[in-house]
Amino acid sequence: MDSLDIFDLENLAISADDDGIVTLSLNRPAKRNALNAATVDELIEVFSKLPRMGARAVILRAEGPHFCAGLDLVEHHAEDRRPEDFMHICLRWHEAFNKMEYGGVPVIAALKGAVVGGGLELASSAHIRVADASTYFALPEGQRGLFTGGGATIRVADLVGKARMIDMMLTGRVYKGDEAISVGLAQYLVEDSEAKALEIARAAATNPPLSNFAICSAISHMQNMSGLDAAYAESVVAGIVNTQPASRGRLEAFANKTAARVRPE
Ligand code: 1HE
Predict the structure, then answer these.
(1) Does the pLDDT value for residue 245 go beyond 90?
(2) Comparing C-alpha atoms, which of 180, 201, 237 is closest to residue 55?
(3) Is the pLDDT of residue 265 over 90?
(4) InterPro entries recorded for this chain (predicted)?
(5) Is 141 a catalytic residue?
(6) Distance from residue 116's CA to the centre of ligand 1 (Å)
(7) 73 lines ligand 1 (CB under 6 A)
(8) Tens digits of residue pLDDT in 171-214
(9) Would you say the CB of residue 117 lies under 6 angstroms from ligand 1?
């Protein structure tokens, strides 16, 4: 993939291996990776460019014991923002997270410690979430006298449902472990979330990029459409993806009985 030298990052760190697996780290551990305006700008910069640089998958991880403590409350307090200022902050968050979710490259979040408030909004913009035993999820906005502004009303409600999200926000309820998995906050609960995220990223990266592009953008777009329009869009996407040259060898292998069969482990 293209060189990552074009990025000049202070709050994030980025690296890639020879297979195009990118590791993007939240890098403000002293502030528990709280999302200040500068970090969100860097997320926009990275996710604007990565999909066109040949990245095959992204692991989103964090330095320190916590994934992300959400909105930088100290910055928000110091800035003493007006409503229109914060609306613009929210638009920047949406830009960053939409670029992640709709960018067409698989993003796997390797979680640990606090995944709270805006941190959960960030994690819910990834395509797959992997938790470890230390990971916990909460929406403490109500207790802070705030409201979600980074897309939780769409993405967290989508993961856990409206009633659970309202409960989390009204009461500060914290989910972790098997319960977090069963309500849909993460798809994997493992000892080492980064090792598992890497394994998932490597597996996903073996799919043709066009298939991953569709999986990591079309499904999200279709959720915003009427059933009739989504079905039409699905046929158009499938028309392109299912006839791609990269799938011919795979179909031939199945027809020749040399391809792996789908079986439970
Ligand atoms: C922060 C932030 C932050 C830590 N903004 N600076 N989010 C929250 O309500 C979560 C707020 N944070 C916490 O509850 C705790 O910090 C943690 C449970 C995540 C971690 O606890 P701990 O004991 O490891 O760390 P700490 O001592 O609380 O914090 C260490 C430093 O990180 C300290 O800075 P220092 O300069 O005094 O050392 C903290 O101020 C700093 N820090 N969290 C700013 N969030 C688009 S709307 C989204 C709305 C929301 O996200 S609301 C949820 C906000």
Answers:
(1) yes
(2) 201
(3) no
(4) ClpP/crotonase-like_dom_sf, Enoyl-CoA_hydra/iso, Enoyl-CoA_hydra_C
(5) yes
(6) 9
(7) yes
(8) 999 999 999 999 999 999 999 999 999 999 999 999 999 999 99
(9) yes
32: CA distance to ligand 1 center in Å? Answer: 6
Using the mean position of ligand 1's atoms as its centre, give its distance from the Cα of residue 71 in Å: 8
Ligand 1: residue whose CA is nearest its atom 34: 31
List the chain domain ranges: 4-205, 209-255
Can you state the angle between helices 152-160 and 162-171, rounded to 10 degrees?
110
What percent of the chain lies above the pLDDT cut of 70? 100
ipTM above 0.90, yes or no: yes
Query: 32 in ligand 1 pocket by Cβ < 6 Å?
Result: yes
Is the pLDDT at 248 greater than 90? The verdict is yes
Judge if 4-205 and 209-255 fold alike in CATH terms: no
Q: Which two tokens stand for residue 35?
A: 């999302």
Chain centroid, CA 182 distance in Å: 19
* pLDDT, averaged across the chain: 97
Q: Which of 141, 194, 234, 265 is catalytic?
A: 141
- Please tell me the distance between residue 217's alpha carbon and the centre of ligand 1 in angstroms: 32
Q: Given the CA of residue 90, which atom of ligand 1 is nearest to it?
A: 46
Nearest Cα residue to 70 out of 7, 135, 15, 140: 140
Catalytic residue among 75, 79, 84, 121: 121
Token pair recorded at residue 207: 């799919």
Q: Is the CB of 35 under 6 A from ligand 1?
A: no
Asked if 174 contacts 183 with a C-beta cutoff of 8 angstroms, the reply is no
pLDDT digits (tens, 9 = 90+) for 109-161: 999 999 999 999 999 999 999 999 999 999 999 999 999 999 999 999 999 99
Fold of 4-205: 2-enoyl-CoA Hydratase; Chain A, domain 1 (3.90.226)
The correct CATH number of 209-255 out of 1.10.12.10, 1.20.1260.10, 3.60.21.10, 3.30.160.20 is: 1.10.12.10
If you take atom 41 of ligand 1, which residue's CA is the nearest one? 31
